[in-house]
Amino acid sequence: QVQLVESGGGLVQAGGSLRLSCVASGRTFSRYAMGWSRQAPGKERELVAALSWTGGSAYYADSVKGRFTISRDNAKNTVYLQMNNLKPEDTAVYYCAADSFARRDVVDVVLYDYDYWGQGTQVTVSS
């Protein structure tokens, strides 16, 4: 079993920045592909960023490319999402996710492949 705990959400003005963190339990974090997804009210959950085991391969949704950066520290069992130049349309609950079946340097871009999920952290961007 893997438990994921997100933190770092909050209220920020448009153009501001936030850094989300997700700490994972367990001893095999370095062998999980990791991702961040979000869900806004009335909308489907979408994958916004993902990272392979070693961090060598990354994926970003077009809506966040150039503004968000996903990274990981395997020594700390932590994955981060640095969010810059935030926009009101980024307002959502952000979820950390782990894919325990991903292969080494594969970044998983299929949302429903992820088998472990955190509880989410709210990000609100005011205009």
Any overview of this molecule?
The chain contains no helices and 11 strands. Strands 2, 4, 5, 6, 9, 10 and 11 form a 7-stranded mixed beta sheet that branches. Strands 1-3-8-7 form a 4-stranded antiparallel beta sheet, with no helix packed on it. The N and C termini lie far apart (40 Å). 36% of the residues are buried.
Taking all Cα atoms into account, the compactness measure Rg is: 13 Å
Shape verdict: globular
Structural class: mainly beta
Biggest sheet statistics:
7 strands, mixed
Question: Number of helix segments?
Answer: 0
Low-confidence stretches: none
Helix content: under 10%
Assembly context of the chains:
single chain
Overall strand count: 11
Q: Tell me the span between the first and last alpha carbons.
A: 40 Å
